[in-house]
Amino acid sequence: QVQLVESGGGLVQAGGSLRLSCTASGRTFNQHTIGWFRQPPGNEREFVAAIRWNSRTTIYADSVKGRFTISRDNARRDTVYLQMNSLYPDDTAVYYCAADTGIILSSIRNDASYDSWGQGTQVTVSS
Is 30's pLDDT higher than 90? Predict the structure, then answer.
C-alpha cells in the first residue's frame, strides 16, 4: 500500500477550473495505476479517470471526457494531477485518489481494484 494525499479542492463557479493533486507520501509511483473517484452528496462513489504510470494510458468516465485531464508529474514521479475545466454543479463531490499495482484494464473503473486511498478533497461548484 501507499499513503496518498489529495489537495486542490475548493469552491468554484460553474464554468470554472480546478486542479487536484494526488501525492504519494514517502515513495514514488512505479508500476501503479492511479485513479480518481468522486462521491457526490447522497450518492455512491463513481469513477472519474485513471492513468497507468508507466504506459501513461489514460481512461475517463464519459461524464468528464473532454473536460477533465489526468496527468503525471514526470519530474517528481510521486504526483498525479486532475485538471478539471468547464465545471458543472453536478461535478460537486468529494474527490478521492486511489492507487494499486497489477490492475487489469477491464477493472480500472472498479473502486474495489484499488488498495490505497487518500482522505478526499471537497470540490463544490456553484451555479
Answer: no
